[in-house]
Amino acid sequence: MKRRIIILGAGESGTGAALLAKAKGYDVFVSDFGIINEANKAKLVQAEIPFEEGKHTEELILNAHKIIKSPGIATSVEIVQKAFAKNIPLIDELEFASKYTKGKIIAITGTNGKSTTTMLTYHILKEAGLSVGLGGNIGKSMAGQLISQDYDWWVLECSSFQIDGFVDFKPHIALLLNITPDHLDRYDYKVENYVASKFSLFKNQDKADYALLYTEDNLIKANLAKHQFASKLLELKFEDIPYEGAYANPSGIIINLNEQRHTFSQDLLTIKGKHNQTNAMASILTSKLAKIKNERIADSLPKFKSIQHRLESVGSIHGIEFINDSKATNVDAVYYALDAFTRPIIWIVGGVDKGNDYSQLDVVSTNVKAIICLGKDNTKIKEHFKNRCPIIEETQSMEEAVKMGYKLSKDREIVLLSPACASFDLYKNYEDRGNQFRLAFQLLEREIELKKLSQSC
């Protein structure tokens, strides 16, 4: 009898897992409590995989040998609790997919910066000519890709929700960039549970593997001694020079590895700010562990383009630069964004508040010229910053927010969308919010150009 695998959630990871499970001979059933998008539905139909949407039918799910759960589904959901009660193993797509690769896995986590570090690491390895795949919390499903192609290396962005579904998942190189309180509703509102989730990325490593951690991060530093590492620990630092690992100073990023020192100029980096130096340290150190030569790394760095919606420049008008940082959905991410610029900032902020502590952003008094609140309820933001910022405006329209930002700024200043909040009050997701920012900029640019043309006629 075929072993039965149930897939909960038919998004990118769930559909990929279903297709791989079918290809490996499992009896597969897909259940999504929401509506499955047409593209994924077509893939399931073509593969002759039965599915349901808009419900979870217990008798079709709780007879599983194993359940692959979408990371977006909380463990508190009723069907998940019933699966736990029946001792049915619940795993993540990456846990399942990792059993079908012969390649080495680079797994990257952290509250912030993991997408940039994942993309930069993938970029360096690909530019160096390595056989490398990209997956996890970014790009295409690893499981789905493995149906037709394996790679020598896999660079995977791993959220805490995905890590919670790891049992035997064993990365050759595992990176922990930072930890700041986020998604605590999924961790019983206990930061120690969230920290434990992040650190568990290293649990299956052995002495042939590597653990890279930014050890000057407060929560990492406070919890480092509580965790045992069977792998080789390499540190990322600014204040001290690690015996082995990476550090940064004004002259460059320095890698200490196997009693050798490798230096890469800061001028090579296209990503700016201290937090991006941490990301670059992690990516470059990982690349050296993958045996990539310094020249190849140095050649690849200036070619890297920042990921969409993360400190992404969408253009300039009259010297005023418009930056899309829609992916900054928590206070810590916004802190990094504000810290990345020395020029005056007109800051567009707001959305669905996740219990934000805005006192962490009192840096606004030094470099934020004006605040534009973009959300249905801006009370908390206005109240906190009313005595810290001389100009606070309010709108529920991205087009109006961008125009307002332009009017409030002048040459060499920045209009920064860095919301600190989720997007669901006005937008589908942070990508939609960022795309609307880009579109509003383009409309403003066209309007200014047309006005200039009419005046010259």
TrEMBL record:
Keyword flag Oxidoreductase: no
Catalytic activity: UDP-N-acetyl-alpha-D-muramoyl-L-alanine + D-glutamate + ATP = UDP-N-acetyl-alpha-D-muramoyl-L-alanyl-D-glutamate + ADP + phosphate + H(+)
Annotated GO biological process: cell division; cell wall organization; peptidoglycan biosynthetic process; regulation of cell shape
Record's signal peptide: none
Domain of life according to the entry: Bacteria
Keywords recorded for this protein, A-Z: ATP-binding, Cell cycle, Cell division, Cell shape, Cell wall biogenesis/degradation, Cytoplasm, Ligase, Nucleotide-binding, Peptidoglycan synthesis
Location of the Mur ligase central domain: 108-285
GO cellular component assignments: cytoplasm
Mur ligase C-terminal domain residues: 309-421
Subcellular location: Cytoplasm
Residues reported to bind ATP: 110-116
Xref: Pfam families: Mur_ligase_C, Mur_ligase_M, MurD-like_N
Spans through the membrane: none
Pathway(s) annotated for this protein in UniProt: Cell wall biogenesis; peptidoglycan biosynthesis
Name of the top EC class for this enzyme: ligase
UniProt-listed HAMAP family: MurD (MF_00639)
Matches recorded under NCBIfam families: murD
Function: Cell wall formation. Catalyzes the addition of glutamate to the nucleotide precursor UDP-N-acetylmuramoyl-L-alanine (UMA).
The name this protein goes by in its record: UDP-N-acetylmuramoylalanine--D-glutamate ligase
Organism, as annotated: Marivirga sericea
Top-level taxonomy: Bacteria, Pseudomonadati, Bacteroidota, Cytophagia, Cytophagales
